Known about the structure:
The complex is a heterodimer.
Chain A: E1 2-4, E2 8-13, E3 18-25, H1 30-46, E4 50-54, E5 58-61, H2 63-76, E6 83-88, H3 93-105, E7 110-113
Parallel strand pairs in A: 3-4, 3-5, 4-6, 6-7
Antiparallel strand pairs in A: 1-2, 2-3
Helix pairs in contact in A: 1-2, 2-3
Chain B: E1 2-7, E2 18-24, H1 31-52, H2 69-89, E3 98-104, E4 108-117, H3 122-134, H4 137-150, H5 160-168, E5 171-181, E6 184-195
Antiparallel strand pairs in B: 1-5, 2-3, 3-4, 4-6, 5-6
Amino acid sequence: MEIKTEDYSTTYYPETATVVCKGSLLLSGAEEYAPILQLLNGAAEQQPNRLTLDVKELEFLNSSGINMFTKFVINVRKKTALQVVAVGYEEIPWQVRLLKNLQRLLPTLTLNLE
Amino acid sequence: MTTQIFGDFIEELHDEVEYLKIGFSPNSVPLKQRWRNNGLSADFIADYLQAFFVGKQKNSNDSNTPIPARSKNAVKYIANELLENAMKFSDETSKYPTKIAFRLYSDQLVFHVTNSIKPQKVENFQAIIKNLTHEDPNELYFRRMEANASNENSTQSGLGLLSMRCDYSAKLGWKFETLQTNPPIITVTTMVCLNV
Lengths: 114, 196
């Protein structure tokens, strides 16, 4: 499953239970982010045990995009068995900040900072 | 002209620091089509920072030390959020242009974004501002995320200003000015200050 434009892509790889987000996410609000949120929630439905969220190649995210990721992790809280692993680069402060905020909302989320 | 100030507002000083100012005419392309330009303008402002910001010179040896990368991302993030808000909340009937000014001080980066606002939206916006300036921003930030997640119909995330305060330690201030009453033209200037 993949959502792709010239500015960004979000791809779900079922075989590795990974969602990879790339590029610049500057969409204008919840409505425009809905398909990406749906992809994330769909991946969480299909993976009962473990899901990796990789934002290393995400270059930019606006506040509506932050809102989308927070909605996703709050949704995951309902699935007690699912372990989410979030991957970002340690030297990119905004990625670290984003993932730590997500971890505060979902304490079982594991951070993997490369 | 009536003026109201909120938060840590710093006036736009027309002094001799380096600055960049961009204006957007309300008569040009409609909002939807302009959305993409917010990101392009924010990129431009962040590039301007990289090209022109020298910063505080602690001593002669480290005058060439580059600014931390986080500042470039911070500038792009804040410029983009401020422009998104301005485009979303401008009163298109007023024909008042949106302006963004970005000033480089040795230890601070200061944004001023001025746009018109619909008179009936002023009270609500001022209530949001009072909330933002009187409550613990971190608590408010996470409470807002939780509220957005439980409300399927929320269209505005309301996280932009909060994330500037919480994730980027920015200082925020606002100035409302009633430029004319009949027909009413009200402008709001949002000031954001980053310490570098």
